[in-house]
Amino acid sequence: MAAGESFDVYRLPEEHEAIREAVREVCTAKVAPYAAEADETGEFPKASYDALRAADFHAPHIPEEYGGAGADALATAIVIEEVARACASSSLIPAVNKLGTMPLLLSGSEDLKRRYLSPVAAGEAMFSYCLSEPEAGSDAASMTTRAVRDGDHWVLNGVKRWITNAGVSEFYTVFAVTDPTARSRGISAFVVEKSDAGVSFGAPEKKLGIKGSPTREVYLDNVRIPADRIIGAEGTGFATAMRTLDHTRVTIAAQAVGIAQGALDYAKGYVAERRQFGKAVAEFQGVQFMLADMGMKLEAARQLTYAAAGKSERGDADLTYFGAAAKCFASDAAMEITTDAVQLLGGYGYTRDYPVERMMRDAKITQIYEGTNQVQRIVMARQLLSGVV
Fold first, then answer.
1. Which of 81, 217, 313, 370 is catalytic?
2. Which of 116, 156, 256, 271 has its CA 20 to 30 A from that of 348?
Protein backbone atom coordinates (compact mmCIF):
# COMPACT_ATOMS: atom_id res chain seq x y z
CA MET A 1 0.00 0.00 0.00
CA ALA A 2 1.38 3.36 -1.02
CA ALA A 3 2.12 6.00 1.60
CA GLY A 4 -0.88 8.15 2.33
CA GLU A 5 -3.30 5.66 0.80
CA SER A 6 -6.58 5.32 2.66
CA PHE A 7 -6.77 2.28 4.93
CA ASP A 8 -10.40 1.57 5.93
CA VAL A 9 -10.19 -2.12 6.75
CA TYR A 10 -10.77 -1.80 10.49
CA ARG A 11 -13.50 0.67 11.23
CA LEU A 12 -17.28 0.67 11.27
CA PRO A 13 -19.00 1.06 7.90
CA GLU A 14 -20.58 4.45 7.35
CA GLU A 15 -24.09 2.99 7.42
CA HIS A 16 -23.50 1.63 10.93
CA GLU A 17 -22.25 4.99 12.13
CA ALA A 18 -25.35 6.55 10.60
CA ILE A 19 -27.51 4.09 12.53
CA ARG A 20 -25.74 5.08 15.74
CA GLU A 21 -26.40 8.77 15.10
CA ALA A 22 -30.06 8.12 14.30
CA VAL A 23 -30.63 6.00 17.41
CA ARG A 24 -28.82 8.46 19.65
CA GLU A 25 -30.94 11.31 18.34
CA VAL A 26 -34.16 9.42 19.08
CA CYS A 27 -32.95 8.30 22.50
CA THR A 28 -31.72 11.73 23.57
CA ALA A 29 -35.05 13.30 22.71
CA LYS A 30 -37.57 10.57 23.51
CA VAL A 31 -36.05 7.82 25.66
CA ALA A 32 -33.62 9.42 28.13
CA PRO A 33 -36.29 11.82 29.52
CA TYR A 34 -38.31 8.83 30.77
CA ALA A 35 -35.46 6.73 32.18
CA ALA A 36 -35.60 8.02 35.76
CA GLU A 37 -39.40 7.82 35.83
CA ALA A 38 -39.36 4.19 34.64
CA ASP A 39 -36.86 3.39 37.39
CA GLU A 40 -38.88 5.15 40.09
CA THR A 41 -42.29 3.76 39.14
CA GLY A 42 -41.21 0.33 37.93
CA GLU A 43 -43.58 0.70 34.99
CA PHE A 44 -42.90 -0.32 31.41
CA PRO A 45 -41.73 2.81 29.50
CA LYS A 46 -44.44 2.88 26.87
CA ALA A 47 -43.38 6.32 25.63
CA SER A 48 -39.91 4.94 24.92
CA TYR A 49 -41.41 1.91 23.17
CA ASP A 50 -43.57 4.16 21.01
CA ALA A 51 -40.52 6.25 20.07
CA LEU A 52 -38.43 3.20 19.19
CA ARG A 53 -41.29 1.67 17.25
CA ALA A 54 -41.87 4.85 15.26
CA ALA A 55 -38.18 4.87 14.27
CA ASP A 56 -38.13 1.09 13.57
CA PHE A 57 -35.61 0.44 16.36
CA HIS A 58 -37.86 -1.81 18.49
CA ALA A 59 -36.94 -5.02 16.64
CA PRO A 60 -34.40 -4.03 13.98
CA HIS A 61 -33.06 -7.56 13.51
CA ILE A 62 -36.17 -8.96 11.84
CA PRO A 63 -35.49 -9.65 8.13
CA GLU A 64 -37.10 -7.52 5.48
CA GLU A 65 -39.10 -10.46 4.09
CA TYR A 66 -41.13 -10.42 7.32
CA GLY A 67 -41.58 -6.66 7.34
CA GLY A 68 -38.55 -5.83 9.44
CA ALA A 69 -35.66 -3.44 8.98
CA GLY A 70 -33.26 -6.31 8.23
CA ALA A 71 -30.48 -4.95 10.44
CA ASP A 72 -27.44 -7.19 10.72
CA ALA A 73 -26.11 -8.38 14.08
CA LEU A 74 -23.67 -5.47 14.40
CA ALA A 75 -26.31 -2.85 13.60
CA THR A 76 -28.66 -4.47 16.11
CA ALA A 77 -25.93 -4.40 18.76
CA ILE A 78 -25.37 -0.70 18.08
CA VAL A 79 -29.09 0.01 18.45
CA ILE A 80 -29.18 -1.80 21.80
CA GLU A 81 -25.98 -0.09 22.94
CA GLU A 82 -27.33 3.37 22.18
CA VAL A 83 -30.70 2.73 23.81
CA ALA A 84 -28.94 1.35 26.91
CA ARG A 85 -26.78 4.47 27.08
CA ALA A 86 -30.02 6.39 27.66
CA CYS A 87 -32.14 3.80 29.48
CA ALA A 88 -31.19 0.21 30.24
CA SER A 89 -34.81 -0.83 30.76
CA SER A 90 -35.76 0.43 27.31
CA SER A 91 -32.84 -1.38 25.70
CA LEU A 92 -34.53 -4.63 26.64
CA ILE A 93 -37.22 -3.86 24.06
CA PRO A 94 -35.01 -4.58 21.02
CA ALA A 95 -32.84 -7.04 22.98
CA VAL A 96 -35.67 -9.28 24.20
CA ASN A 97 -37.53 -9.04 20.91
CA LYS A 98 -34.40 -10.59 19.39
CA LEU A 99 -34.09 -13.15 22.18
CA GLY A 100 -37.71 -14.25 21.83
CA THR A 101 -37.72 -14.45 18.04
CA MET A 102 -34.26 -15.91 17.47
CA PRO A 103 -35.49 -19.51 17.94
CA LEU A 104 -37.95 -18.96 15.10
CA LEU A 105 -35.27 -17.46 12.89
CA LEU A 106 -32.96 -20.39 13.62
CA SER A 107 -35.39 -23.31 13.60
CA GLY A 108 -38.95 -22.21 12.90
CA SER A 109 -41.05 -23.17 9.90
CA GLU A 110 -41.69 -20.57 7.25
CA ASP A 111 -45.33 -20.42 8.32
CA LEU A 112 -44.37 -19.70 11.95
CA LYS A 113 -41.96 -17.00 10.86
CA ARG A 114 -44.54 -15.20 8.74
CA ARG A 115 -47.25 -15.59 11.36
CA TYR A 116 -45.24 -14.29 14.33
CA LEU A 117 -42.32 -12.21 13.09
CA SER A 118 -44.45 -9.84 11.03
CA PRO A 119 -46.52 -8.49 13.97
CA VAL A 120 -43.33 -7.93 15.95
CA ALA A 121 -41.72 -6.11 13.03
CA ALA A 122 -44.82 -3.94 12.71
CA GLY A 123 -44.68 -3.02 16.39
CA GLU A 124 -47.98 -4.74 17.09
CA ALA A 125 -46.51 -7.26 19.53
CA MET A 126 -43.43 -8.08 21.57
CA PHE A 127 -41.78 -11.48 22.05
CA SER A 128 -40.36 -12.99 25.26
CA TYR A 129 -38.19 -16.03 25.96
CA CYS A 130 -39.20 -18.64 28.55
CA LEU A 131 -36.31 -20.93 29.46
CA SER A 132 -35.56 -20.55 33.19
CA GLU A 133 -37.65 -22.14 35.93
CA PRO A 134 -37.70 -21.91 39.76
CA GLU A 135 -35.40 -24.97 40.00
CA ALA A 136 -33.74 -24.70 36.60
CA GLY A 137 -31.61 -21.58 36.17
CA SER A 138 -28.04 -22.21 35.07
CA ASP A 139 -28.96 -25.90 34.68
CA ALA A 140 -31.72 -25.28 32.14
CA ALA A 141 -31.76 -28.93 31.06
CA SER A 142 -33.31 -29.85 34.42
CA MET A 143 -36.54 -28.01 33.58
CA THR A 144 -39.82 -29.67 34.49
CA THR A 145 -42.35 -27.81 32.35
CA ARG A 146 -44.08 -30.50 30.30
CA ALA A 147 -45.63 -30.54 26.83
CA VAL A 148 -47.77 -33.59 26.02
CA ARG A 149 -49.07 -34.36 22.55
CA ASP A 150 -52.85 -34.72 22.33
CA GLY A 151 -53.95 -35.31 18.76
CA ASP A 152 -53.43 -32.12 16.77
CA HIS A 153 -52.43 -30.16 19.87
CA TRP A 154 -49.80 -29.90 22.57
CA VAL A 155 -50.81 -29.34 26.19
CA LEU A 156 -48.29 -27.40 28.31
CA ASN A 157 -48.02 -27.31 32.09
CA GLY A 158 -45.37 -25.64 34.22
CA VAL A 159 -43.87 -22.43 35.56
CA LYS A 160 -41.25 -20.21 33.96
CA ARG A 161 -39.35 -17.69 36.08
CA TRP A 162 -37.35 -14.50 35.44
CA ILE A 163 -39.19 -13.82 32.19
CA THR A 164 -38.33 -10.39 30.86
CA ASN A 165 -41.27 -8.28 29.67
CA ALA A 166 -43.71 -11.00 30.75
CA GLY A 167 -47.24 -9.70 30.69
CA VAL A 168 -46.30 -7.00 28.19
CA SER A 169 -45.27 -9.33 25.38
CA GLU A 170 -47.97 -10.95 23.27
CA PHE A 171 -45.83 -13.94 22.23
CA TYR A 172 -43.56 -16.32 24.17
CA THR A 173 -41.01 -18.90 23.10
CA VAL A 174 -41.53 -21.64 25.68
CA PHE A 175 -39.19 -24.58 26.23
CA ALA A 176 -40.78 -27.72 27.64
CA VAL A 177 -39.99 -31.39 28.15
CA THR A 178 -41.60 -33.65 25.57
CA ASP A 179 -39.58 -36.78 26.43
CA PRO A 180 -38.67 -37.03 30.14
CA THR A 181 -36.27 -39.91 29.50
CA ALA A 182 -33.98 -37.98 27.16
CA ARG A 183 -32.90 -35.01 29.34
CA SER A 184 -31.71 -32.18 27.04
CA ARG A 185 -32.64 -34.15 23.91
CA GLY A 186 -36.17 -34.45 25.21
CA ILE A 187 -36.83 -30.69 25.25
CA SER A 188 -38.84 -28.95 22.55
CA ALA A 189 -39.67 -25.30 21.81
CA PHE A 190 -43.12 -23.80 21.23
CA VAL A 191 -44.80 -20.48 20.52
CA VAL A 192 -47.35 -19.59 23.19
CA GLU A 193 -49.63 -16.57 22.94
CA LYS A 194 -50.58 -14.36 25.86
CA SER A 195 -54.23 -14.90 24.95
CA ASP A 196 -54.03 -18.72 25.07
CA ALA A 197 -56.32 -20.16 27.73
CA GLY A 198 -54.35 -21.18 30.81
CA VAL A 199 -51.60 -18.56 30.47
CA SER A 200 -51.20 -16.23 33.45
CA PHE A 201 -48.49 -14.17 35.11
CA GLY A 202 -47.08 -13.64 38.58
CA ALA A 203 -46.57 -10.32 40.30
CA PRO A 204 -43.67 -8.18 39.03
CA GLU A 205 -40.39 -9.01 40.74
CA LYS A 206 -39.01 -6.32 43.04
CA LYS A 207 -35.59 -5.85 41.50
CA LEU A 208 -32.36 -3.96 42.09
CA GLY A 209 -32.31 -2.52 38.58
CA ILE A 210 -33.90 -2.50 35.10
CA LYS A 211 -37.09 -1.69 36.96
CA GLY A 212 -38.86 -0.37 33.87
CA SER A 213 -38.66 -3.80 32.27
CA PRO A 214 -41.15 -6.06 34.06
CA THR A 215 -39.91 -9.48 35.17
CA ARG A 216 -42.58 -12.02 36.10
CA GLU A 217 -43.27 -15.70 36.34
CA VAL A 218 -45.29 -17.23 33.52
CA TYR A 219 -47.79 -19.91 34.54
CA LEU A 220 -48.89 -22.55 32.06
CA ASP A 221 -52.00 -24.40 33.25
CA ASN A 222 -53.18 -26.95 30.68
CA VAL A 223 -52.34 -24.55 27.86
CA ARG A 224 -53.55 -26.21 24.67
CA ILE A 225 -51.88 -25.00 21.48
CA PRO A 226 -52.01 -26.24 17.87
CA ALA A 227 -49.34 -28.80 17.00
CA ASP A 228 -47.94 -26.54 14.29
CA ARG A 229 -46.68 -24.10 16.94
CA ILE A 230 -43.70 -26.30 17.71
CA ILE A 231 -40.42 -24.62 16.73
CA GLY A 232 -38.33 -27.06 14.74
CA ALA A 233 -38.43 -30.82 15.24
CA GLU A 234 -39.48 -32.42 18.50
CA GLY A 235 -36.50 -32.82 20.83
CA THR A 236 -34.43 -30.04 19.27
CA GLY A 237 -35.56 -27.28 21.64
CA PHE A 238 -32.56 -27.30 23.95
CA ALA A 239 -30.12 -27.13 21.05
CA THR A 240 -32.13 -24.21 19.67
CA ALA A 241 -32.06 -22.50 23.08
CA MET A 242 -28.27 -22.76 23.29
CA ARG A 243 -27.78 -21.58 19.70
CA THR A 244 -30.05 -18.64 20.46
CA LEU A 245 -27.97 -17.64 23.47
CA ASP A 246 -24.80 -17.77 21.37
CA HIS A 247 -26.28 -14.93 19.33
CA THR A 248 -28.10 -12.98 22.02
CA ARG A 249 -25.27 -12.87 24.55
CA VAL A 250 -23.81 -10.40 22.10
CA THR A 251 -26.83 -8.17 22.69
CA ILE A 252 -26.28 -8.29 26.47
CA ALA A 253 -22.67 -7.30 25.87
CA ALA A 254 -23.95 -4.37 23.79
CA GLN A 255 -26.36 -3.40 26.56
CA ALA A 256 -23.50 -3.45 29.07
CA VAL A 257 -21.36 -1.29 26.81
CA GLY A 258 -24.19 1.21 26.47
CA ILE A 259 -24.80 1.43 30.22
CA ALA A 260 -21.08 1.94 30.82
CA GLN A 261 -20.89 4.61 28.12
CA GLY A 262 -23.75 6.52 29.70
CA ALA A 263 -22.05 6.42 33.08
CA LEU A 264 -18.68 7.50 31.71
CA ASP A 265 -20.24 10.35 29.73
CA TYR A 266 -22.01 11.69 32.79
CA ALA A 267 -18.97 11.31 35.05
CA LYS A 268 -16.74 13.16 32.57
CA GLY A 269 -19.13 16.08 32.45
CA TYR A 270 -19.46 16.19 36.21
CA VAL A 271 -15.75 16.19 37.06
CA ALA A 272 -15.08 18.83 34.42
CA GLU A 273 -17.58 21.20 36.08
CA ARG A 274 -17.24 20.32 39.76
CA ARG A 275 -14.58 22.40 41.56
CA GLN A 276 -12.77 21.49 44.76
CA PHE A 277 -9.62 22.97 46.31
CA GLY A 278 -9.77 25.79 43.78
CA LYS A 279 -9.74 23.72 40.58
CA ALA A 280 -11.85 21.34 38.54
CA VAL A 281 -11.98 17.80 39.92
CA ALA A 282 -10.92 16.62 36.46
CA GLU A 283 -7.52 18.25 36.97
CA PHE A 284 -6.53 15.85 39.75
CA GLN A 285 -4.30 13.05 38.52
CA GLY A 286 -6.05 10.40 40.61
CA VAL A 287 -9.34 11.26 38.90
CA GLN A 288 -7.68 11.26 35.50
CA PHE A 289 -6.30 7.78 36.14
CA MET A 290 -9.79 6.55 37.02
CA LEU A 291 -11.24 8.05 33.84
CA ALA A 292 -8.43 6.56 31.74
CA ASP A 293 -9.09 3.08 33.13
CA MET A 294 -12.83 3.47 32.61
CA GLY A 295 -12.37 4.55 29.00
CA MET A 296 -9.84 1.82 28.28
CA LYS A 297 -12.02 -0.98 29.64
CA LEU A 298 -15.07 0.40 27.85
CA GLU A 299 -13.35 0.49 24.48
CA ALA A 300 -11.94 -3.01 24.93
CA ALA A 301 -15.44 -4.24 25.75
CA ARG A 302 -16.90 -2.47 22.72
CA GLN A 303 -14.34 -3.93 20.31
CA LEU A 304 -14.85 -7.46 21.64
CA THR A 305 -18.62 -7.00 21.39
CA TYR A 306 -18.43 -5.80 17.80
CA ALA A 307 -16.12 -8.69 16.88
CA ALA A 308 -18.63 -11.10 18.43
CA ALA A 309 -21.45 -9.39 16.53
CA GLY A 310 -19.60 -9.99 13.27
CA LYS A 311 -19.24 -13.65 14.16
CA SER A 312 -22.94 -13.80 15.01
CA GLU A 313 -23.85 -12.37 11.61
CA ARG A 314 -21.61 -14.88 9.80
CA GLY A 315 -22.44 -17.80 12.07
CA ASP A 316 -18.76 -18.51 12.69
CA ALA A 317 -17.76 -21.76 14.39
CA ASP A 318 -16.24 -19.88 17.32
CA LEU A 319 -19.34 -17.76 18.02
CA THR A 320 -20.05 -19.69 21.23
CA TYR A 321 -16.70 -18.60 22.65
CA PHE A 322 -16.88 -15.00 21.44
CA GLY A 323 -20.50 -14.52 22.52
CA ALA A 324 -19.63 -15.74 26.02
CA ALA A 325 -16.42 -13.70 26.13
CA ALA A 326 -18.10 -10.49 25.00
CA LYS A 327 -20.98 -10.85 27.45
CA CYS A 328 -18.67 -11.72 30.33
CA PHE A 329 -16.04 -9.06 29.71
CA ALA A 330 -18.44 -6.25 28.85
CA SER A 331 -20.69 -6.87 31.84
CA ASP A 332 -17.77 -7.05 34.26
CA ALA A 333 -16.43 -3.83 32.75
CA ALA A 334 -19.83 -2.15 33.01
CA MET A 335 -20.07 -3.01 36.69
CA GLU A 336 -16.59 -1.56 37.33
CA ILE A 337 -17.18 1.56 35.24
CA THR A 338 -20.57 2.41 36.73
CA THR A 339 -19.23 1.86 40.25
CA ASP A 340 -16.34 4.20 39.50
CA ALA A 341 -18.77 6.74 38.07
CA VAL A 342 -20.64 6.75 41.37
CA GLN A 343 -17.33 7.24 43.15
CA LEU A 344 -16.39 10.18 40.95
CA LEU A 345 -19.62 11.96 41.85
CA GLY A 346 -19.01 11.37 45.54
CA GLY A 347 -22.07 11.82 47.72
CA TYR A 348 -24.10 13.06 44.75
CA GLY A 349 -23.43 9.80 42.94
CA TYR A 350 -25.14 7.93 45.74
CA THR A 351 -28.40 9.83 45.33
CA ARG A 352 -31.22 9.39 42.87
CA ASP A 353 -30.90 13.00 41.84
CA TYR A 354 -28.10 11.84 39.54
CA PRO A 355 -28.35 8.96 37.04
CA VAL A 356 -25.14 7.06 37.77
CA GLU A 357 -26.54 5.17 40.77
CA ARG A 358 -29.31 3.88 38.51
CA MET A 359 -26.74 2.88 35.92
CA MET A 360 -24.75 0.99 38.53
CA ARG A 361 -27.86 -0.92 39.62
CA ASP A 362 -28.81 -1.61 36.01
CA ALA A 363 -25.33 -2.85 35.15
CA LYS A 364 -25.45 -5.64 37.73
CA ILE A 365 -28.01 -7.73 35.87
CA THR A 366 -25.78 -7.95 32.80
CA GLN A 367 -23.44 -10.16 34.86
CA ILE A 368 -26.32 -12.49 35.68
CA TYR A 369 -28.90 -13.03 32.94
CA GLU A 370 -28.49 -15.10 29.80
CA GLY A 371 -26.03 -17.14 31.84
CA THR A 372 -24.09 -15.87 34.84
CA ASN A 373 -20.52 -14.83 34.21
CA GLN A 374 -19.39 -17.94 36.06
CA VAL A 375 -21.26 -19.99 33.46
CA GLN A 376 -19.71 -17.89 30.69
CA ARG A 377 -16.26 -18.80 31.95
CA ILE A 378 -17.21 -22.48 31.89
CA VAL A 379 -18.44 -22.07 28.31
CA MET A 380 -15.24 -20.33 27.26
CA ALA A 381 -13.01 -22.92 28.93
CA ARG A 382 -14.81 -25.78 27.23
CA GLN A 383 -14.45 -24.10 23.87
CA LEU A 384 -10.74 -23.50 24.46
CA LEU A 385 -10.13 -27.07 25.60
CA SER A 386 -12.08 -28.52 22.69
CA GLY A 387 -9.84 -26.70 20.22
CA VAL A 388 -12.64 -24.61 18.68
CA VAL A 389 -10.81 -21.38 19.48
1. 370
2. 256
331 and 260 together in one domain: yes
Quote the pTM value.
Answer: 0.96
d(CA 160, CA 221): 12
Please answer whether residues 210 and 90 qualify as being in contact, where contact means their C-beta atoms are separated by less than 8 angstroms: no
- Which residues, including other chains, have CB under 8 Å from residue 320's CB and lie 6 or more apart? 246, 379, 383, 388
The last residue of one of the domains, among 237, 272, 302, is 237
**pLDDT tens string 311-330:** 999 999 999 999 999 999 99
Q: CB within 8 A of 213, min separation 6: which ones? A: 44, 89, 90, 92, 96, 164, 165
Alpha carbon distance 345, 359 (integer Å): 13
Residues 249 and 220 in one domain: no
pLDDT in tens, 207-221: 999 999 999 999 999
Same domain, 366 and 328: yes
In a domain, 348, yes or no: yes
| Distance (Å) of CA 279 to CA 272, 282, 347 | 10, 8, 19
Q: Is 299 a catalytic residue?
A: no
Give 14's Cβ-side CA count (13 Å radius).
Answer: 1
